[in-house]
């Protein structure tokens, strides 16, 4: 059964404090634990809030790449995503407010795709235009760099 998606919709996430560093969040019927590492006073039972943002970026990259692939008659057989984030933690450490907490984010995407090279080019070049998390980060001032390895070779998107 196909789901008819609305162009604008509302979703909810709720969270409850468990300790000074640990929260339990819920979206739909999914529960997530958000926590700090032991060295920061947490219990290390879940990702830190900033790691959750980057996990969201990875998930968005995966989902939108596959939507673009289907729209361009390309098949993504596998995809591995590694995100390397530079964070300016002066704001979260209460040293001083900052404007751009993540000055540089590198997304390394390794994938196997089949289809016409023009279709693959559409996937690679259009991802940044459609991934909501990537757009949010870019518009907040973060430099988001996508490095693609497609079928074992570096793929540079057309300018």
Q: How would you portray this structure in words?
A:
By secondary structure, the protein is an alpha+beta fold. The chain folds into two domains: 16-46, no CATH class; 49-155, K homology (KH) domain (GMP Synthetase, Chain A, domain 3), CATH 3.30.300.20. Helices cover 28% and strands 31% of the residues. It contains three helices and seven strands, in the order βββαββααββ. The protein has helices spanning 49-71, 117-130, 132-139, and strands spanning 13-17, 23-27, 30-34, 75-86, 104-114, 143-150, 153-155. The protein has a four-stranded mixed β-sheet. It has a three-stranded antiparallel β-sheet with strand order 1-2-3, with no helix packed on it. The protein is globular and about 50 Å long. The relative contact order is 0.13.
Going across the biggest sheet, name each strand in turn.
4-5-6-7
Rg of Cα set: 18 Å
CATH topology assignment of the largest domain: GMP Synthetase, Chain A, domain 3
State the CATH architecture of the largest domain: 2-Layer Sandwich
**How many helices does DSSP assign?**
3
Characterize the main sheet.
Answer: 4 strands, mixed
Distance between the termini: 39 Å
CATH class wording of the largest domain = Alpha Beta
Beta content comes to 25-35%
The helix content, as a percent range, equals 25-40%
**Average pLDDT rating:** 94
Give the count of structural domains: 2
Order of helices and strands: EEEHEEHHEE
Helix/strand/pairing category: alpha+beta
Number of strands: 7
3D shape: globular
């Amino acid at each position: 059964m196909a789901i008819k998606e609305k162009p604008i919709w509302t979703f909810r996430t709720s969270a409850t404090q468990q300790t000074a560093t640990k929260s339990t969040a819920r979206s739909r019927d999914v529960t997530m634990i958000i926590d700090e590492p032991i060295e920061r006073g947490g219990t290390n039972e879940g990702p830190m809030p900033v790691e959750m943002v980057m996990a969201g970026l990875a998930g968005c990259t995966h989902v939108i790449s596959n939507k673009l692939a289907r729209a361009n008659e390309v098949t993504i057989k596998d995809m591995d995503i590694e995100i390397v984030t530079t964070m300016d933690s002066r704001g979260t450490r209460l040293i001083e407010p900052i404007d751009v907490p993540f000055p540089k984010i590198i997304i390394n995407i390794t994938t196997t795709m089949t289809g016409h090279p023009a279709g693959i080019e559409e996937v690679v070049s259009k991802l940044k235009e459609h991934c909501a998390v990537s757009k949010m980060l870019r518009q907040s001032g973060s430099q988001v760099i996508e490095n693609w390895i497609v079928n074992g070779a570096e793929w540079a998107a057309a300018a």
